[in-house]
Amino acid sequence: MPWLKAFHIVFVVTWFAGLFYLPRLFVYHAGALQAGASERLLAERFAVMERRLYALMTIGGALAVGFGIAMVASAPAYLTFGWLHAKLALVAALVAYHVWCYQLMRALTTGRSAHSQRWYRWFNEVPGLLLIAIVLLAVLKPF
Predict the structure, then answer these.
(1) Are 128 and 20 contacting, i.e. CB atoms less than 8 angstroms apart?
(2) Over its length of 143 residues, how does the chain's per-residue pLDDT go in tens digits?
(3) Domain count of the chain?
(4) Nearest of 50, 68, 54, 85 to residue 11 by alpha carbon
(5) DSSP conformation letters of the chain
(6) Domain residues for 101?
């Protein structure tokens, strides 16, 4: 079980690194699109960076979820704890956020983004809030 937990943490860190940085790239990408033709090459560069980062963070997220499932499978009694149910619900929200990032990335790449730089700055705060809640649940096990 300690090996599973160690690898779970490693891949959670990898996943969150991407979740923190990708929306920041969206901020810059939206700014480049708003600047117009003079920044078109920069917007194309952001599209490449976003696509590559998304691929890496998807691998990290899939492995984090996989090792998490392996931990629960090796100790199914944990499924009786309320804190784990809450944590899993927040992880599900994180997976939905990850998928939403993909949709936003595609919209930016095709120039169809309906959001401003400011909106993306707020969007960028979501994974940080989820991280705080997930870590508090996992460490404190409040219920």
Answers:
(1) yes
(2) 899 999 999 999 999 999 999 999 999 999 999 887 777 889 999 999 999 999 999 999 999 999 999 999 999 999 999 999 999 999 999 999 999 999 999 999 998 999 999 999 999 999 999 999 999 999 999 99
(3) 1
(4) 68
(5) -HHHHHHHHHHHHHHHHHHHHHHHHHHHHHHHHHH-GGGHHHHHHHHHHHHHHHHHHHHHHHHHHHHHHHHHHH-GGGGG-HHHHHHHHHHHHHHHHHHHHHHHHHHHHTT-----HHHHHHHTTHHHHHHHHHHHHHHH---
(6) 2-140
Retrieve residue 130's tokens.
């989820």
Contacts of 68 (CB under 8 A, 6+ apart): 8, 91
- Global pTM reads 0.94
**Structure tokens of 73?**
């499978």
